[in-house]
Amino acid sequence: MAQRNRNGRRKSDPALPFRPAQEKFLFERKLHTVTEEEPVEKLLNKSLQRGGDPYFDNLCHTLHGISELCLPSVVSALIGWHQRMELKINETTVAGNDSRVQVKKLLAVNYLFCIVLIEILPQVEFHLSACEQQVKYLLDSSFHQVQYKDP
């Protein structure tokens, strides 16, 4: 017997399309607040923590609910947003720019990406075949930004 989500729809039904116009705006607003309006020294885990911004928390909760029905589309949109943001940050690097600001922007994008993935990926067990390529991409790129530093 197929499992059903909270809407009574079978979790194995074909994925629905997801068009994240408002979500991208809220993510970028949050990133702007964290990277432009707060001091560079402020830790990202304090700025982007769950419970600190009701709009962001509501967005994460909404994405969790949407991912029950169309996880492949949500993950594809999230990966596309992440790639565009990384490219945008890397392209806007100017020699006179403060490298600490650029690093903080890149870390904030990656941190936000991880927070949303933590929220939506519990649904992957119901969409394994449809999300196989996205999961492979996430696994391949998961340690791309990790750097070893001596203590």
Q: What helical percentage do the residues reach?
A: 55-70%
- Mean pLDDT across the residues is 77
SS-based structural class? mainly alpha
Domain tally: 1
Distance between the termini: 53 Å
Count of discrete alpha- or pi-helical segments spanning 4 or more residues = 5
* Morphology call: globular
Beta fraction: under 5%
Can you write the helix and strand succession as a string?
A: HHHHH
Largest sheet data: none
Radius of gyration: 17 Å
Low-confidence stretches: 12-16
Summarize the structure.
With 151 residues, the protein is mainly alpha-helical. The protein contains five helices and no strands. Helix 1 packs across helix 3, helix 1 packs antiparallel against helix 4 and helix 3 crosses helix 4.
Can you characterise this structure?
This protein has 151 residues and is mostly helical. It has one domain. Helices cover 60% and strands 0% of the residues. The chain has 5 helices and no strands. The relative contact order is 0.15. One of its GO terms (cellular component) is cell cortex. It comes from Nippostrongylus brasiliensis.
